[in-house]
Design goal:
Layout (H helix, E strand, L loop, with lengths): L1 E5 L6 H12 L2 E4 H11 L2 H12 L5 H12 L8 E4 L5 H14 L5 E6 L2 H9 L1 E4 L5 E3 L18 E2 L6 H15 L1 H8 L3 E5 L4 H13 L8
Parallel strand pairs: 1-3, 1-4, 2-3, 4-8
Antiparallel strand pairs: 5-6, 5-7
Helix pairs in contact: 1-9, 2-3, 4-5, 6-7
Bound molecules: adenosine-5'-diphosphate (ADP) (2 copies) and zinc ion.
């Protein structure tokens, strides 16, 4: 199964992608995680991306498209993939279509997580992220078992610099201008499934599973 998760920053893409990719045994590819790993390691790619990320702007298309091309070629994608945070522009979506055509693995579904703006801001400003594995928590809605420590790997939790309120606003602007058009783009291609994202984490997971189980495709469960 080959999937894309769409939705504004804070919609719950990363949280749900980790669960759904685990359930279906497919690779979870988060472009944001790849950038943060590169920033941590101090690579050239990280240096380039950080400049944009800190301002709440999108990283240039050609940079992102290159890393996705590389990720899709990886062994871990052999059973399928879930793209989280890519594509974010029409140019990225067109490039993705071309790449997938080349390797003969078309998208099965694009899941759009619908969450009102107010909820998004509430979620992002109390998000905490694992420095080591990238898993996301929320201080109130989805807290770790031990304060400041990742349940999955024991890593240290921190607040992303771009999760402060002023940068969150800039990211929502970018989303509206550049990413929102992809909803119609994928609806027109007949790939879009809309899922309400404002229930509990478990409720949203169930709603996504239901949406993926419907209609065509080889969705398994
Ligand atoms: P995205 O990848 O779309 O930016 P995340 O998965 O990181 O979103 O979620 C954003 C924040 O909201 C995190 O703090 C996460 O723990 C929290 N969160 C995710 N899903 C829910 C939910 N259904 N209810 C409440 N909080 C959630
Ligand atoms: P969120 O889901 O909270 O918006 P991400 O981790 O997906 O956060 O992305 C963080 C930042 O990384 C974005 O604000 C942007 O600067 C950069 N980024 C991630 N994915 C892309 C992409 N597909 N195109 C351009 N920039 C991206
Ligand atoms: Zn961790």
């Amino acid at each position: 199964m080959n999937l894309v998760f769409l939705g504004p920053p804070g919609a719950g893409k990363g949280t749900q992608a980790e669960r759904i990719a685990g359930m279906y045994g497919i690779a979870h590819i988060s472009t944001g995680d790849i950038f943060r790993e590169n920033i941590k390691k101090g690579t050239e790619l990280g240096r380039k991306a950080k400049e944009y990320m800190d301002r709440g702007e999108l990283v240039p298309d050609e940079v992102v498209i290159g890393i996705v091309r590389e990720a899709l070629a990886g062994e871990s994608c052999s059973q399928g993939f879930l793209l989280d945070g890519f594509p974010r522009t029409v140019a990225q979506a067109d490039a993705l279509e071309e790449m997938l055509q080349e390797i003969g693995r078309p998208l099965d579904r694009v899941v759009n997580l619908n969450v009102p703006d107010q909820v998004v801001v509430e979620r992002l400003t109390a998000r905490r992220t694992c420095r080591n594995c990238g898993r996301n928590y929320h201080l109130a809605f989805n807290p770790p078992k031990v304060d400041g420590v990742c349940d999955a790997c024991g890593g240290e939790l921190y607040q992303r610099e771009d999760d402060r309120e002023d940068t969150v606003r800039a990211r929502l602007e970018e989303y509206r201008r550049k990413t929102q058009p992809l909803i119609d783009y994928y609806r027109d291609k007949g790939l879009l499934v809309e899922v309400p994202g404002d229930g509990s984490v478990d409720e949203v997971t169930r709603a996504i599973q239901e949406a993926l189980g419907q209609g065509h495709g080889h969705t398994g469960s």
